[in-house]
Amino acid sequence: MRGHFANWTAAAMAGIVGAGLSLASPSAAADDTIKVGVLHSLSGTMAISETTLKDTMLFLIEEQNKKGGLLGKKLEAVVVDPASDWPLFAEKARQLIEQDKVAAVFGCWTSSSRKSVLPVFEELNSLLFYPVQYEGEESQRNVFYTGAAPNQQAIPAVDYLMNEEGVQRWVLAGTDYVYPQTTNKILQAYLQSKGVAAEDIMVNYTPFGHSDWQTIVSDIKKFGSTGKKTAVVSTINGDANVPFYKELGNQGIKAEDIPVVAFSVGEEELAGLDTAPLVGHLAAWNYFQSVDSPANAEFISAWKGYTKNDKRVTNDPMEAHVIGFNMWLKAVEKAGTTDPDAVIDAIVGVSVPNLSGGFSTMMPNHHITKPVLIGEIQADGQFETVWQTAGLVVGDEWSDYLPDSKDLIADWRAPMSCGNFNVATGKCGGKGTTN
Amino acid sequence: MQFVRGLVLAIAVICASLPSLAHADEAGLRALLTRLATTTNFQETESVVRDLAATGEPAVERILSALADGNLYVRKSDQGVFTGKEDGQTLSLSDPLDGTAAGTAAKADIVKVKVNNALRRTIRDVMGGLTLGSADPTVRLSAASTMLKRPDKTALPALDAAIAGETDATVKAALAQARAAAVLVSDLGEAEKRAAIAVLANRGDSDALAQLTAFQAASTGALAETAARSVAQIETSMAAWQVAQNVWYGISLGSVLLLAAIGLAITFGVMGVINMAHGEMVMLGAYTTFVVQQAIRAFAPDLFDWSLAIALPAAFLVAGGVGLAIERGMIRFLYGRPLETLLATWGVSLILQQAVRTIFGPTNQEVGAPSWMAGAFQLGQLTITWSRLWIVLFCLAVFLLLVFIMKRTSWGLRMRAVTQNRRMAASMGIRTPWVDAFTFALGSGIAGIAGVALSQIDNVSPNFGQGYIIDSFMVVVFGGVGNLWGTFIGAMTLGVLNKFLEPYAGAVLGKILVLVLIILFIQKRPRGLFALKGRAVEA
Amino acid sequence: MIARRLFSSDRRIAVTIATLLAAAVIVPVLNLAVPAESAFHVPSYVVALAGKYLCYALLALALDLVWGYCGILSLGHGAFFALGGYAMGMYLMRQIGARGVYGNPDLPDFMVFLNWKELPWYWLGFDHFWFAALMVMAVPGLLAFVFGWFAFRSRVTGVYLSIITQAMTYALLLAFFRNDMGFGGNNGLTDFKDILGFSVQASETRSALFAASAVALALGVLVTWLVVGSKYGKLLMAVRDAESRTRFLGWRAENVKLFAFTLSAMMAGIAGAFYVPQVGIINPGEFDPANSIEVVIWTAVGGRGTIVGPIVGAIAVNAAKSWFTGALPELWLFALGGLFIASTLFLPRGIVGLWDRWQQMRATRAVPAEGKAAARTEPQPAE
Questions:
Q1: pLDDT tens readout for residues B447-462
Q2: Chain C, nearest residue to B362 by Cα
Q3: ipTM of the complex as predicted
């Protein structure tokens, strides 16, 4: 009887721990490769955007290996699927760092997924390159933000509409997410600082994946019929955009009457749309596929060759990965090692060519410098640049238009090495009431 | 600028009346065109556009519309300006003035003359003047509505001339309204303005409201009061239309819900299978539409307007076939264990999603709208989009067809017999396995044709079905499981309720409120709106 | 006395509890005391993962109490889990204090950058662990009580009940997505630092959390076993198998259900509370109806209407998911979907049912008489 009992216990124990342990089998690959983690959702709601970024990383790694790899070793991609499930992001990040011992991770799309993995990267001291535009208000030692901060996208777009199109009335429409909420807070403060009256700003939020836009589009139409030039600033999240634009087109809102400027609509999203009725609506990014530069032409043809698909488009987050990956390569070469601390020290100031013909530099706040482009949608699903900043814009992690963050800066170089240094109190740690 | 525009209009009217003066100065136009090749910013291009328009030549219309459509190119080698038509990797060029062919050029050898919204607006405005005398009444109508939106007092003489010469009643009314808007911004006397206010108040839509509000703000005294009264009058009538609009939006949302739920009303409502793969059947229908359209684009572009009609039977067969396979391969082993169908169909749903993702890729696919579904029309102050109208009609047709099948055909009788009392039906000689299989296939097939319609308003992506599955279950349960009319009333009620809540509570809170109301409603009527009665219910 | 009853009558439950308690001791020791090079070392990654599985197992057990034993198919149990998680998350947020990025001692970061001026009233009290611990059970319990009180009294049953539980979790999902609710919107609550004064990132804390989860699950098993084995448990199954008949016999079926539903929701809340510090984030995604459906699937795969089944199912399915998403990132949904279909078709009584049958077969082959006695079967639910 006792023996039987022990057998049972042993079997059940094996069940619980073994389930975990079996995952922990050390990977067979030897030390002659440097592993790079790719943490993008390949299933679930975000797969639509993130799968392309996984392909981009595989493409970049293959290209680099053709050039001889890094530090004399080949690069090896470790791809996992966090399935658009935020806690799973944290689990997969931990697996990549602890088990697969990757040198750096390229990944995440939504802010939720980034927030979910942040503590893991901090605890295990590894590197994350985050390629998507986001709300700012963050600077972390282990994270490099290669997408746009609000001042690299939202504010120039509003400036353009105000100056070039003479817009006086604003609809801020977004998905009820943290990114749209923060961006709209910043924009509201910015618009009011430019003398726009409160009644000339309409803020509207919709649930995730909203597909019935009839009411909102007709509200926008009504809001825009007061005789003052009106524009929509859209922070509507990926999936909801297609029905939104379809409704705009059907209700006959032309870009000449009420232009819509979007921050989350790129070439990839437009690929699912007939863009003829949308010609003239705008998007603000740091890169467009249509950018006319030799580096871009070369990249596009290599990408199309790699995917063996002549219709594959390129977009801004892809460029962010290109920049981030090249920066990491350069920093590792500079440091002579993939050790995260050495790379973090080496990468600040590293400058690599971006695809729009200039150079992007990693700043001490772990954001990068980028040009800001405003493009209009064309009938072929591409954007045409109608305006761009004269020079590069430095990513501003702490917005100047939010009262609690305007005194904060981030500088990860020694001796400051702080993500939330308060210039008013001269202390690290936000408002500085403690420490 | 105002002056230039007025001049343009005056000239335009004269040109229209005296066609012999056209073709006067081709050399001058060519000179202006070459300036287009060297512009570096939008302001410069705009000045060229204005100069072009000022010539008043009919050929300018062709140039400007090519420019607005982004079809005007500059050849890098000789700075020649051409209109281009895309033809694969090359463009076929033609002369912008007379339209004669001018060879082809590779994309790399030419540059497009860039336009932006502001420029397109300018072009539209100046063309408004040019096209006021157009032979096509729809062009004249759009010119009039442009001029209503951006009134210009210098355009008054041109408008007067146009009104005098106009024969089409609709266009004439639109011109009169455009003139009224222009009068309001002019220096004309009070009587004229009073008449103008009346004309605009009569129009009574948001465009008129915009002009009157602006006028009211700018004027004082009795005129301002008259304007204020008209504004109030328009606002009252628009509020009434607003209710009608909400009802229409509600019906339109309701028919989307009904389309999504109607297949489920059969597989779940009638058969009792908790079909979590229902959304994927809708998705298969949408992807079938995509494939059909791709095929049509490749082999028979002329048939594109028929693509949805062709996709309907295809989608029915594809989704129905998959449904048949699921029923034969899996669900038939699970009858009598309805909750377990939930698990198995959930597995099917994962597999179908991933299969579509593997075959078509994870990104959205473009499903085009046939020309008869694009755009909108006005019904009073209501803007009704064609796509929504067709969806409502299509949804009604599908629903009535289904009711007919279930209630009036022997097949439907068998279906109902089997679902109500399987053993009795079997002993009456009905081959219950086949009825099961075909009922499930029918439900799936209908989900498939719903996908064809929904592909017109939503993303076609592997997640397509996920967006509808919860709403579909809510509709079926709210209406009462097993009752087609319940599903119909349920969908429409939820649609209209949602649309009436949305303006007050916002889209997010509105949706939450609807869900809470459903929960409360089920407490009141635990078997939905139209509960089935009798012993079969308890089984 | 309970212990004696356990060992004498229900060996499988005893083994499960013993295993969990043993794991609560051994896994932390193997993680902390054994050097990393040793073959016996359990990496921190596995500790965190296994801890997460145990929380899922407790959630599945909670669902099984209502579904397997009382016939209430809840498609909204994820909501109770998430509410418990949020209660714990709010405590953890308050523990950050002035260490947030803005250094604001009074407000969590997400409130600072959305310009909130003061802490909403419903955040008050969460500075104290005892209060949060109370809320972990009270909030899901209260919601379940109110919801159940209405639903069971109105005799909402079967699929109608399932769908309105789904509506409940969906409505909560949308509500918690709203930034105006003051729960951090879609980003949720994250960036935790301390729990009870210990850093959540330290491996000692992780091990302790794992041990606590194991003990909580063991307690959950014990409580479920006691409830199911009691006279009330018989009533529960009577309601499941023939609700009208039970009612005609004079029992208040709605009260029987209400008790089970509330107890189950509280268990789910506790599971959520242990889950949050181990994964480091709680956000509205946990309310997703799809998550609740997954819980149903774990339970079914393991074997519903048994106590061990949901635990085995939750661990097996999640381990499979963890492994598939790493090993077959492109194809894992095929594998998982196939697993669900196969287990429904071929394992109608789940893994535990398969094990039972195997035991039965082995026993009948060896010693027919004793085998029948040994292969005790759990009462099987009817549909």
A1: 999 999 999 888 888 9
A2: C330
A3: 0.88
